[in-house]
Amino acid sequence: MAHIDYFTITLSPFAYLAGQGLEEVAKKHGATITYKPFNLMQVFEQTGGTPPAKRHPARQAYRMQELARIAKRNNLPINLKPAYFPANPAPSCYALIAAQDAGGGDLGGLCQGFMSACWAEDKDLADDAVIRACLEANGFDPKLADSGLLSGAQTFEKNTEEALQRNVFGAPSYVVGDQVFWGQDRLSYLDDYLSEIG
């Protein structure tokens, strides 16, 4: 059975625009997924990436055009200038890690719920009430927002180191073995690869 390591961050608009695409591909192939929230800004610093706000205006403008195009193509609502962006992604990333450890809910729905809160609902991902509501809406105990802080922080750090070791430099990244598929527009390539390896 194939396994996908999903390196993401809850503030990524491109991860949001993937919708449930990863979960659909995994289900099609009977693959398992490990969600690995990581520190994207640290990875940018160590791999030569530039945060969006520091990019040339031409690149910033193109990014906005692309986000609008992808949202339209994928039939997902998007606010190109969210009220709370950038927010601190750590609390929601820690909650995602805690939910994965706890099990019993819809992890894909939770991940998407966090990103939707930012990019479609103008909610603050650093707000404890927002995190708790997303947890509860996806079948998890809202108290995970508090109980998973320490282990979440440790796993977040480990995921970041692992991302660097496995040649991940952006989010979303889907990794199977030594194969890295970067970006929501590479899900079709991931689908093809999983078909090849059976």
Strand content: 5-15%
If strands are numbered along the chain, what order do they take across the biggest sheet?
A: 2-1-3-4
What's the structural domain tally?
Answer: 1
Biggest β-sheet strands, sense, barrel: 4 strands, mixed
- Following the backbone from N to C, one meets helices and strands in this order, namely EHHEHHHHHHHEEH
Mean pLDDT: 95
For the termini, the CA-CA separation is 8 Å
The total of helices stands at 10
The shape, in one word, is: globular
Q: Tell me what the CATH architecture is.
A: 3-Layer(aba) Sandwich
Q: Low-confidence spans: pLDDT under 50, at least 5 residues? A: none
CATH class bucket: Alpha Beta
CATH fold call = Glutaredoxin
Looking at CATH, the homologous superfamily is Glutaredoxin
Helix content: 40-55%
Account of the protein in words:
The chain is an alpha+beta fold. The chain has one domain (3-197): Glutaredoxin (3-Layer(aba) Sandwich), CATH 3.40.30. The protein has ten helices and four strands. The chain has helices at 13-17, 21-29, 40-47, 57-73, 90-102, 107-119, 128-137, 144-147, 149-165, 187-197; strands at residues 3-8, 32-37, 173-176, 179-182. Strands 2-1-3-4 form a four-stranded mixed beta sheet, sandwiched between helices. The model has no long low-confidence stretch (mean pLDDT 95).
